[in-house]
What does this fold into?
Amino acid sequence: MTQWVYSFGATQCDGDASQRNLLGGKGANLAEMSSIGLPVPPGFTITTELCTYYYDNDHSYPDILTQQIQSALAQIETETGRQFGSADNPLLLSVRSGARASMPGMMDTVLNLGLTDESCDGLATQSGDARFAYDSYRRFIQMYGDVVLEVDHGLFEDTLDDMKMDKDVVSDTDLTADDLKALVASFKQIVLDETGEPFPQDPNTQLWGAISAVFASWMNQRAITYRRLNDIPASWGTAVNVQAMVFGNMGDDCATGVAFTRNPATGENQFYGEYLINAQGEDVVAGIRTPLPLTLEAKQQGGHDALSLEEAMPEVFAQLDDVRHRLERHYGDMQDLEFTVQQNKLYMLQTRSGKRTAEAALNIAVQMAEEKLITESEALDRIAPESLDQLLHPTLDPDATRELIARGLPASPGAASGMIVLTADEAEKRANQGDKVILVRVETSPEDIHGMHAAAGILTARGGMTSHAAVVARGMGRPCVSGASDVRIDFDAGIVYLGEQQLQAGDVITIDGSAGEVYSGQVAMVQPNLSGAFETVMGWADKYRRMAVRANAETPNDARVAREFGAKGIGLCRTEHMFFDQDRIVAMRQMIMAADEAGRRAALELLLPMQRQDFIELFSIMSGLPVTIRLLDPPLHEFLPHTDSELEEVAEAIGVAVSTARQRKLKLEESNPMLGHRGCRLAVSYPEICEMQARAIFEAASEVARQDSAPIPEIMIPLAATSRELEICKAIIDRVAAEVAEATSITLEYMVGTMVELPRAALCADALAEHAAFFSFGTNDLTQTTLGISRDDAGSFMHDYQAQEIYPIDPFVSIDEEGVGSLMRIGTDKGRQSRPDIKLGICGEHGGDPKSVNFCETLGLDYVSCSPFRVPVARLAAAQASIRAKAKS
Amino acid sequence: MTQWVYSFGATQCDGDASQRNLLGGKGANLAEMSSIGLPVPPGFTITTELCTYYYDNDHSYPDILTQQIQSALAQIETETGRQFGSADNPLLLSVRSGARASMPGMMDTVLNLGLTDESCDGLATQSGDARFAYDSYRRFIQMYGDVVLEVDHGLFEDTLDDMKMDKDVVSDTDLTADDLKALVASFKQIVLDETGEPFPQDPNTQLWGAISAVFASWMNQRAITYRRLNDIPASWGTAVNVQAMVFGNMGDDCATGVAFTRNPATGENQFYGEYLINAQGEDVVAGIRTPLPLTLEAKQQGGHDALSLEEAMPEVFAQLDDVRHRLERHYGDMQDLEFTVQQNKLYMLQTRSGKRTAEAALNIAVQMAEEKLITESEALDRIAPESLDQLLHPTLDPDATRELIARGLPASPGAASGMIVLTADEAEKRANQGDKVILVRVETSPEDIHGMHAAAGILTARGGMTSHAAVVARGMGRPCVSGASDVRIDFDAGIVYLGEQQLQAGDVITIDGSAGEVYSGQVAMVQPNLSGAFETVMGWADKYRRMAVRANAETPNDARVAREFGAKGIGLCRTEHMFFDQDRIVAMRQMIMAADEAGRRAALELLLPMQRQDFIELFSIMSGLPVTIRLLDPPLHEFLPHTDSELEEVAEAIGVAVSTARQRKLKLEESNPMLGHRGCRLAVSYPEICEMQARAIFEAASEVARQDSAPIPEIMIPLAATSRELEICKAIIDRVAAEVAEATSITLEYMVGTMVELPRAALCADALAEHAAFFSFGTNDLTQTTLGISRDDAGSFMHDYQAQEIYPIDPFVSIDEEGVGSLMRIGTDKGRQSRPDIKLGICGEHGGDPKSVNFCETLGLDYVSCSPFRVPVARLAAAQASIRAKAKS
It folds into this structure.
């Protein structure tokens, strides 16, 4: 018999933290906390397997489920001493989602479940607080009506607003018990009017309705979007947690709050959180009332007037602080807690690994390792490589002049400039057009996620440090200023009032998410100073990683940045990028459009000294490190003149009529340039191009070798599909090498290898390896050809493809392991077959993607190469991959 | 010790016919003829292995070679009773190439080798014919000077012409011994002037020079071109045959000729050939003197005056006729012979399997099988499947009016119309532009091959039935009229005089290669009547083949032709081809450019009845046979409006402004449409398209099933890379099938499968096979993606790629077995892994290519599908592949 339901509580606890896949994160941790004796209200978790069952069986449940739930419910009744559905002593329940990975706010929740007309009276009697009872009931009807019965929640809100206006009060809390009783009646009427059925008075009906609503919310649009953005498969499903309600809103001896065991923004080892007296949990996270600091220290730092929890409820605070330390020791990681205090008694409602900024992740990992809470390997594993990207983003230049126009909370670090947009859709649209935008909202909600993702930064008028905007922005690495109360928005007019200023949508502002400040216009920025923890972690990463990390770079600037970020050489220098400068493009066009070899040679003569100078600079910067130079790769038509004046210019350079030049241009245009006359095909057709580039490389290397240690050029032949192509190109390169060696009397070491970027190259890698001393997997093109998808054209369908989980992860971001990956495996195996010591690397965009780096480790590649800013990411990812590989072996 | 030299002759014979790879075709057959006692002048063959050695070792020879050659030479001296280099009794030699495969006229030959000033006098004395001796010597100097010493042959020819003018004679034969002696002196002076060295007087120097020249000629440009056109690897190398000279030009009791043991044009069992009295071999094939028929019958048929060999030399003829029968029995195949009669004695100089027309090949194979000379399997193996193509070419409509403007010889059957071009380069250029051309030449030479290949037909003013033009044209399946002596060409003026007519280059003519006739303008043509032998062979092929042969067809006409040619169903119906009709393209454009699903559905409603009607016709024609229908595949942009008026038309149809329509068009354009939004990606984005097509298929099938046996539609999903795409599309198809079944009360059998045309599909075939009941390898696209070559753009480099042997055979013609083939193997293996009974086929162009069909047999595919006209080719190729596979197992 399948166990669909797992109880937790003081008397019985079926699950533990290891069962995250089955019980979801929340359920597993509630069980774990119960089992180590923390004060958790009793409850039970319905497993993620049931979610799968539910979707596989047309939204139905196995028969046995009713019995399992009834039995688990009975246990809660025993432990709490209350009865579900009782009129006198009702047990109220919360019903919440809880997936394997945290998806905050994405799915539905129902609180105060079990209230009926009858039990509401019982609750009033029992609690001695009729106002509390009716407030709970109207909240329940509102939530249940919205979530389960799909009644427009605006109807409830409007009725509440009308009531407040009627009674001339500002806050909900000013409404009396009678007001709330009347509101309950109105809400019930809304339900009847909208659904044609009275609000359900059977608690079991309520419970099943809520459970189904939670499962159904797994497939709502915002959950689907969130999963896509966070690479969470739909197949995981969500669990449902049903738990006895505790109330933070029964009076001033009650409270509710959220906390992090360390500062999630900086990583400092300080208790960090917010709470509200006499409130329910969602009041804190929803940002409706501005919450208060947890500790005295934070209160003093923030300059608040209200009492901290430490002052208001010192005993409860001490107990909570003890829980904080126990949980950190138990989990060996910084935790994100939810708690409620009901009549001075502390209840823990949730613990989970806390989201944190990259800076905090680094600091926490390093500190915990130093505190011996975790090992160095574990510390490395705690840091999401992707998150390092944040640390490398610019901050405001301290010397830049700036005009402060508003202040808010420093919700997510980093700075960003962009034009104001007022809706998530607009943000996405503008960003797709290439604009940098700042999304400005009163507060954000899960519906805004795509816009937050598209924005360079986020600014909200309401909400605290743990508001939706803050949590999501930190997770995404977007700078965010929240709770900037000076900000007002007139949507219809498209105007944003920032303090004294009045700005239009489209105006540029700058936000500093580390300081919580908003500036007018664009403010100059500087590179961040990387903290000591960053260096420590990078040091550990280098100690544990097996693969080398190189950078893709061709400009001296990129090469320098790459070296600073710890690149051990250049894995891809794309020589064509060197030819787009205004003074070179004409010579390049002259070469392409020449009528014959003599014409091409004349143009190549002009290009040779420029190209040689490029390599001299590059070799000097990378002195002592390998530099992989890819020969000219792109379809020639990329260099073709676009405008008439460009055409005239090139016609004059080659000395032909404009009409002749235009005809040559037409002849060079291709219908599928990606699969056209490019890569080593150019060298086969026009050996003189390969010859010029080889000459530039060897002459530059000789030049550098005169003054410095000789570089080892690794010359890479692009787009080879056959061994014969390599044979032909290598013969040219070897000949030029010998010629230069003779002329300069300097004999250089060098390697000739190839990109493996076509399926045929991987399939015939044994033959290719006979002429190639190294392979570098060009996974961009390999993905294009293996999947038959042009990256430039994928936009029209890739969205549908991800939504329908055909490619759950964009294959241009993470290597498609089944398809492209299996070709890479064939390529490495066959390459080593005929050349056991062949050097193997990767130089596609995937070289900086942690999941792909891990895959490269499983193939045993020698190095990964990525863009300079991704080098730290790749170093850490490579270390994690090594650690994982060792753990497996 | 390696044996580099193999002797043949009456007294010692080292080789035999089985050693073709080592000795070349000519050498192996000379040895074979010697060993069965035929009169072959003694000689020796230097092996093809030495050719390889020569190129691998920088054009040098192993030391032992000298000794082996001297010893073989000694044996010739013994057998002939002459001495090489002797002044009194000189042995003269011929030195000829001889590769594994016949490459007529491609490589160099030197005759009369061994003549020096001294031995020429000896030869004059010994033969009693000074004229003959000096003529031989001047021919030798001329040939050796051209071939070995690389002296421009025009210099010799000009001197000869001057001499004739001087002496006021027309023919070489009118020159006296003294004239020729003077000519020898002039020729020697030319050599001295041009090379700075006197003509070599040492016979051994001459011999080594000639041997090296033959080896060197293996790599001349025309040999390379010929090999590329005929798929002959450079690695095979050529042998060199050194043989005692015999002379057909020593007087009127001498002759030389070529013969086929059966008629190579028709296959009739009649001795067929030509000869010349008092001539050397090249006089016959060069077409300088028009040769005479061999037999009395041929003389009478041709209405010639001169004596046939049968009349002129009855004894020699009887002996030759006997040789003819012995060789046919011995080789079991029609032979192409060369012979020389020296002073009434017959010598055989060559035998080889004779080139023949497709019609002749069929007739000979069938007759020989009926004569029990060979088995049915052997008969099938004798016919080149490619050659059947010729039989299916049109001939002139007998009822068409026509204007005969010239007559020539019926050198290669079939008829063709095209514009006159006068050079091979022009032929190639025009053909590349899509024009049909007739190449008109005085006579053709190996330099013209590329132009002959490009031409629809060939017309020459000179040369017989065995001239270069005739042999090559028959081999290529091009219609050819040779020796049309009324044809005169003024190159400079670009004018062709045909009898009375004067035509310009560019004017259209029609040639009938079966009748030897030339017509003005374009003459209507008809399909050929396939002979009984064709039906017999096709019947045998069907008996021996394992794979089924289907056709790629979508129009009723193509489907009917396919059935007539024996297709067992349709393997590929490309539904997009159905939408280009004028009345449909507007609805198609309306669908593509609609703003939303409703707009698309409106347009699809218009297309549904048309599409249904298409399928009704197709299913009716293919009643009882499977029909594979591929869902819409091409990038939508192929259907986009081109002109402004088309744009206006579609804008009106969808009811939007032209500017809006133009914007949508821009949005739909792609940079690499081959890898863009096409194939099943359309069905994923726009499921309603898939739905409409499925509905049309099932409604049509139900309609046909009411009156006929129900067709089994095999619905093929294009361009799938993942199993999920198939899952999504199959769900739509299955749903529509159920809906149509319910509406019509007819339940149809059908299959859903996929094209395997992306590398990922092959690599993940196990997953795909879970949703696909069949795979059809789409080798066109699979080649494009595996090799990364766009077929549309390959033109700019494929020529270089073939010339440099990167792809020795165009991979779009024959499957690239190492690359694409290995993916096909992975695909078949993995497909069968998860679905052992999966149906496997191929529907790319390769399905009609014999080499590729053979490869498909090795994979065990169930069927091949090709264009209707290739069906007979594929049936025969499939039979040969089956026979080969059985022979191996």
